[in-house]
Amino acid sequence: MARIVVAEDQSHIRHILKMWLERHGHTVIEAENGLYALQALRTEPVDLLITDINMPEMDGIALAKCAFDECVTLRHLFVVTSRCDQQDIIAQITSENVTVIPKPFSPSQLLRDVEAVVEGPSPATTAVDSAKGTG
Amino acid sequence: MEQADQQQSTATVAKPTPRLLSAHGEFLRSFAVQVVILIAVALVCAGGAAIWIVFNGNRANVVAMAPRVSEALASLISSANIQTKDDLVALGPQMENFPYVERIDVEIRTTKTDAVSGADNTQTLQYHTGDQGPTLIRTQSPIRNANDEVVGRIGVAFCPPALGWLSVAIYTHLGVIAVAALLGYWLLYCRTRRQLRPLEQIQDNLIAYHEGIEPTLDLLTVEDESGYLSDAWNTFVDSIASLRREVERFRCKTAVAANADSNHALHRILLEQLPLGVMRVDDRESITYSNPAAAAMLNFTREGSTGRILSEQVSDATVASKLLEMRSAPPGSSTDLTMTRRNGESVIRVSPLMARGPIEDMTLLLQDVSQLVQAERSRDDFLAHITHELRTPLTNIRAYVETLSQDFLEDENARRECYNVIMSETRRLSKLIEDVLSVSQIEAGGTRLVRTNVRVEELLRQTAQEMQAAADAKNITLNLKIPSKVPMVPGDRHRLHQVWTNLIGNAIKYTPANERVTVEVETEGSRLAVRVTDTGIGIAPEHHEKIFDKFYRVGDEAVSATEGTGLGLAITREILRIHGGTIRVESTAGKGSTFIVELPTAKAVENEIFAG
Description:
The structure holds 2 protein chains of 2 kinds.
Chain A: E1 3-7, H1 11-23, E2 27-31, H2 34-43, E3 48-52, H3 60-70, E4 76-81, H4 86-93, E5 98-102, H5 107-119, E6 126-127, H6 130-134
Parallel strand pairs in A: 1-2, 1-3, 3-4, 4-5, 5-6
Helix pairs in contact in A: 2-3
Chain B: H1 2-14, H2 20-80, H3 85-90, H4 92-95, E1 101-113, E2 120-128, E3 137-144, E4 150-158, H5 165-210, H6 228-273, E5 277-281, E6 287-290, H7 292-298, H8 310-313, H9 317-325, E7 335-341, E8 344-353, E9 362-368, H10 370-406, H11 412-443, E10 451-454, H12 456-473, E11 477-481, E12 489-492, H13 493-509, E13 516-524, E14 527-534, H14 557-560, H15 568-578, E15 582-587, E16 593-600, H16 602-611
Parallel strand pairs in B: 11-13
Antiparallel strand pairs in B: 1-2, 1-4, 3-4, 5-6, 5-9, 7-8, 8-9, 10-12, 13-14, 14-16, 15-16
């Protein structure tokens, strides 16, 4: 089981992710923006970070750039975004342990990706398209 | 036209060449003939004159001596005592001695008395001499007897002196005159005819040319090989034809030159006023031409730039270098250059025109595509925004639908919450699509307004009633301060309703619970002012203008937490703009906001129409 920070300014999405992850035994820490998520990373031994990109105060890219430095236990980063420039996002974060998931995403698929990371080695930096979620 | 000239030249060569030397010979021959004729006429005249003088002299002598001869004959007869005709005939040999006497009529009274009657007998006797010819003069003289009594009379007819050789000379002379006259007439006739023949042709051809039957001068050539006049005329016609060709050629050249000058001037005017930049650069990298647009785009002074090195004129070395690199660019290609200016940057799209080779002048076409690039960026931003805004409610809908489909929510309230989220996100999606369509239609000018005189106070009350439920949900007091008399506003009722819905809806949305929203209506001259005031989160001054841009949302937590498409105020401003109205905001962060809408009243619009 993993300790996961969910950084998302949309409360509905935050709520549904928490519901799915907790139902499968994970511990979820909610953050309304990048700053709250960064505080959680600094204070908690977090395994995974699921973050949105467009958030007030501190956006997902800034958070992702410093996340691994702020939290040594962090193993993988999931970026869920509705932006179209996913390749730019990957290029900006410059970390291997990042998976970009475009919105709208499937909660079950995200859960499978999370559990794959928790149970196995970190996946390479990839951009998962929406077809993967439905397929 | 050149072919026509060649044909005319060929026709000219084919014509008989005027023979002036031959013409001179002809003239000399003609002169000799005339001299001979003149000499002959002179001789004939001289001979005739001599004959005439001699002839007249003889006649004068005859006339002068006629009375004396007549008197002598009368004396002779008187003395001879003529009684009978025989007596008279016996005098014949004596009368023959009188010259030029043609006939003598003697009427004499004889003394012998008639035997029968006893009366005196008067006889008329005639005597003819041997000379015959026409009578020149006739005389009469009395015959007197010895007593000096008139016993008769004598009539003498004189003939002209016998001509003899003179007569031969006269007839010969007359014959010569007749022959000479015939010969002269014949010669003159032939000569005149020969001379008139080309004149007749010339006359016919000139009439044909004058009446337009023959449009060219070719037929005016006279075909008379021996005529001096025809040769001169042909030369004259050739000269006129040649002159006409020269005039035509000159006219063509002038027309072509004038056309070329006109085209050149037109091209120059077009280039000078063309909004596209045109610049030519030679193989030594010097500017050979630049129009005003090119100079303005590349930010250099056009005066004196011709002949100067490009890199000296264009201050930006990178831009100058890229411009020179266009020499090797394929035709049809283009590259965008960014020019830094005082008021920002501009994007210049450069493409080579008619690039024929590396050593010839390079012609560059420059186009300021800043607005185009800006429009493309705006379109891309719009698409990115709309995609982002669509994905957010879709994400919620998909996630909650999938959650419900997993059937692991045992709690009915949790399931109901899922349904509510799906419904609200569906409404959000619909509202987003509706707003996007509205803003697109309004910006594209495709909105058809149904203009009537709208009672704004009624529309505000209607909107307030519709929004009352939302206000009540947050226990917000919705106050309307409307004066008793409000002027009507010309406009589209549906669109104005959309304005008030957006403004009052925003006020309720961004105002905390238990606060107040106030709508005031005031008449300010010819304009109606509507103020929507809330006591909500307020807007920082740096956002006052931007909040009316599409998809712009203030990035603080309270706004992000509030549902919205970011299009409401943009649509509101566009609707007011097409109604001739304005909107502005007065606000302080944390202390509420007042949105002030101003619209022209119906009376003001009428006055403007009548005044206009």
